[in-house]
Predict the 3D structure of the following.
Amino acid sequence: MLELMGNLGFGLRAHTFLGSNSTMMKAPFLSICIPTYDMGGNGAQFLEQSLTKLTHQSYQNFDVVVSDQSDGNDVAQTCNAFSERLNIKHLFFSDGPRQASANTNNAMRHAQGEVVKILFQDDILARHDSLELTAQAFEEDAVWVICGSAVTYDDHNAIRPMVPQMHPQIRFGKNTISSPSVLSMRRGKALEFDEHLIWLMDVEIYHRLNKTYGSPKIIPETLVLNRLHERQVSNTGVTVELRRKELSYVRQKHKMGETLKDRVSFYKQILKAR
């Protein structure tokens, strides 16, 4: 489980930028957790576009936590530029493991909201009421919520909309849910991403959440756009060796109670990873 606020060490430099309508007295309902890095020089630009979408949300009871693994100050300066419009906290995390799982976990550890919503730096909210619908989904004691998504090349047009579905073998990489940007969790019961994983970081946590809490609450509407670009991890860092290594790791981690369908799914993915 996540360690909640109060564990703020790690030698980090933290900047809290409070907008004019923010208050330190009452925690927001949602915390938008954004892991960031240089992303080939596009990181700050992508973040700016995402933060701009957040300023236009119909629902405003949220804060933003940006965990920054970039080598320069562009991301920090972008956060500062939005300080009058958003309740935003910027955290340098250059000493942490340079991968999305650790960076996302760091953002979640510093969240204060009742609910943590993941939003990757190169993804954006698709609608002005994306956060409103997310908050409403937690009104009936939901623990984890996933929403519909689509991909985009131009930050506006939604392509291949996808309604998420959970299935028992999802941990082996047949992702019927989408990126971590569709995921929200009640903070007091949130699970951390496995920091051994890169390619399977999302599907493995979906599997653990389902095992721990049961099926997710699903918002079928497209609330998130996953930006397609050449600097995506799936295009730059996922080798055949990495795929095979992570598949074997995930299988061993969750081998207790393995079914015949599980084994078939594992070997199918191993054969594809070549």
